[in-house]
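Researcher: For the record, we're logging two predictions in this thread. I'll number them. Prediction 1 follows.
Model: Prediction 1, sequence and structure:
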Amino acid sequence: MSKVCIITARGGSKRIPGKNIKDFLGKPIIAYSIEAALNSGVFDEVMVSTDSAEIAEIAKAYGAKVPFVRSDENANDFAVTRDVCKVVIESYRAEGKVFDLFACVYPTAPFLTAEKLKAAVETLEKSDAYSLVPVVQFSFPPQRGVVVRDGLMQFMNPEFAQTRSQDLEPVFHDVGQFYIEKTEKFLEEFTLVTSKTVPFVLPEEEVQDIDNYSDWAIAEMKYKLLHDIK
């Protein structure tokens, strides 16, 4: 089964300028995603989809390929990941390269490892599902969440107000690190979370959204703790 890893890295980050190549504990953050994909040994090609010449040069320096330049349409603030992946797949097919499976990896995923990617790909290949999504359990049961209406707090789901946390069904959310997809089913359903998706559960300490500078600082602290870096 032929496989490609697509690392999506546009140049126009607003909240953290230069986010995808910003230094994260000694090297550009995108390097962690590239190295994890390359070291997993499961991909026939590891590529970066970008509109930025600077990102392209750094990506190639760390061993990724940049065979196509992303269009302005797929690099603006309204571009969505599924569109980027579809364009990459179609661009490869125009060159006669067809991949049975692809991974979409985000460039700001320093907690991603080669071992995780390899295990995730193997999990999907052994299943009859069409896609795999890494998830993490909510630290507090969302069933007992509250909302504020007319200045007063109330339970969003009153039926669970007196239910013990341990008696509630665990709820998970997408961690925003990567997706593994069987290409034909992705193109057929045109979604990264297909009608048959298996979860890949990750521990909370290996997950961190990086949307602003505070998130970035927390991610660095968590990474140092995980890797015993002083």
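Researcher: Logged. Prediction 2.
Model: Prediction 2, sequence and structure:
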Amino acid sequence: MNLPPPRKSFRETQFELREEAILDATNRLLGDKGYEAMSMDDIATEVGIAKGSLYKHFESKEALAGAVMVRLLEQTRAALAAIPSDRPAIERLEALLRWTLSQRLSGSVPHLPSTSPALQTSLMSNREYMDSLMTLSDEIGEMIQRARAEGAIRASLRDEFVLYTLYARTCDPTLEFLKAGGAMSDAEIVEQMVSACFRGMAA
């Protein structure tokens, strides 16, 4: 007989809720200020806790930024899993890019790590982040191969090129320029980006 998992104590629940609040605050600050300019003091102030309490959750700014990026990869995998598996692979790839771009425009995804060499270096030594990134890349790679088998991707385009092109689009500064211009809605920006990525610009 399977027993139900033990109930968490009030203290454990509060600890987890505070940790989520810290990650949310860090996510916002990474988007607003960038990795280099963001400090642990900024994060503590944003959450409304003492700096010492912050260090009970995360030992450094590098560890905290890494946790934010790991959570983002997990959310991306969840979004991918939520796309019906019976849809053509190319449509699943488009849906995933559409979700990612929409998250960027809503402020949920900081423009990282492409903008910060220091963060890139830190993430490269973060085992959990690298494992999560490789898992996501493998899942997207499988969809690319399926799309190729279904005749939806040109045979001359290598799998690595398609994968890195999708990653590049998720951190494309074009989104910010178009949003700042104000001539297009977020939905229009996303559809233009997805269309250009998968169907090109030729008439």
